[in-house]
Amino acid sequence: MITLRRFQTPLTNVPTATAWYLSDLGEAKGKQELFTKQAPQKLKALREHALIESAVSSNRIEGVEVDRTRVGTVLFGKALLRDRGEEEVRGYRKALDLIHSRGADLPISEDTIRELHALSRGGVGDAGEYKRGENDIIEVFPNGRREVRFRTVRATEVPAAMAGLVEYWAAALHARTVPPLIALAACNLDFLCVHPFRDGNGRTSRLLFLLQCYHLGLEVGRYISLERLIEENKERYYETLKLSSDGWHDDRHDPWHVVNYCLYTLLAAYREFEQRVGEMTSPKGAKSELVLHAIRSQAGEFRLADIEKACPGVGRDWIRSLLGDLREKGEVICRGKGPAARWSVVASRGTTPK
């Protein structure tokens, strides 16, 4: 709430990079309705894929993984789950369902935040309850030395801090002293600095971020996984948090690192959304297009497992078949056999890799 409280006063200036991001996002948001109306049937595959990627990536950022062969069962099946990791991934999907189904009608409140946390934690133990003890951010060095990287808000102060967070968020949107997207990033930073729950704060912060995007009319997270984009830039994610949290308790911090990272992520999502919609030639081939996009986006050599990771929920045989078709067409080449085989895109024949 300290960053949001600072932003109750009108900004005298905005960093140049931030202004560029805001301008580009304004243009992207303006195209949003055009794309969603242009190919409504094609977007179903994007929604399903984003749901899978978001649940898998957000948990994987926190070190929670599930067997790739069970992703479909965990997210959409009714079979009994094997362990806590599967429970948390399925719970995160339920939290996403809640956000996507209710959107801006779901209020930004303490009750909502606790509900999102409870769902993402599988509803067990202290899920949905504020922490009772301290959970400072600890950095572990290669030699085993441990050091407190950031002291989060004390457990006894969390209720007041969270009440302030919700209050200042509402006030920022009402007063418009800063652009709403800046307030969105500021709220994300403040939430992570408060660290209100014993565990699951990162996942809850990403769910809250998605929900707040809906409140601002940004629906790209329905079609492109914001969590997957964060995972792909995980090192930058943690570095910006470290830079922006330094001095937070005394209001001496620099929030612009996190602000720009959040805006960058949203802009990357919109650009990918526009590209994906343009690539899809038919609803029937949407699944194939998602896999082809993952293949053609590879830089340098890659393995079949890399495409599996980029396309959770898509069967290995399906991916292998598409790679075989592309090899026959001369769009990819293969070196080696079996799981260790290395593939690469032929830039002159396929889509130029990024």
CATH level-4 homologous superfamily of the largest domain: Fido-like domain
Q: What's the helix-strand series?
A: HHHHHHEEHHHHHHHHHEE
The tally of beta strands, per DSSP, is: 4
CATH architecture of the largest domain, by name, is: Orthogonal Bundle
Distance between the termini: 38 Å
Structure description:
The protein has 354 residues and is mainly alpha-helical. The protein has 2 domains: 2-279, Fic-like fold (Orthogonal Bundle), CATH 1.10.3290; 286-345, Winged helix-like DNA-binding domain superfamily/Winged helix DNA-binding domain (Arc Repressor Mutant, subunit A). It has 15 helices and 4 strands. The longest helix has 24 residues, at 256-279. The two termini are 38 Å apart.
Write the layout of secondary structure elements.
Blueprint: H1 2-6, H2 16-38, H3 43-61, H4 71-76, H5 84-102, H6 110-120, E1 137-140, E2 146-150, H7 158-175, H8 180-194, H9 201-215, H10 226-232, H11 234-245, H12 256-279, H13 286-296, H14 304-310, H15 316-329, E3 332-335, E4 342-345
Antiparallel strand pairs: 1-2, 3-4
